Model the fold of this input.
Amino acid sequence: MKRIFAMITAVVALASCSGEGVYFKGISDGDSVTTPLAVKMGVCGMDVKPAGDVVEGTGHHHLIVDGDCIPLGETVPKDASHHHFGKGQTETTLNLTPGAHTLTLQFADGHHGSYGKAMCKTIRVTVK
Done:
């Protein structure tokens, strides 16, 4: 049974990866959600590693609430809107106010240098 579950999980993960890029798991653009909101983050074509060293093909997630993609090479700011996952985390919980919000997932290198729009995904959600 465990083997079948592992195979199904692998197929779902591969189906989510259509080339390189980042993606949200379990929430989609236009969804109505409740708070607190569980957010799961995925990446294709790169490995998730904690912040620290810059290693080709690796990086970590940043989640930007009500903001845009960070241009290639720029450092992702650290403030109330820019959530850093420098320990290599791939999920979090957000407390959002009711209404419309954008969630932008940005992948960056070990020094928080943005991989730009190629590794960025923005969705819109409405909190009930």
In short: The two ends are 38 Å apart (CA to CA).
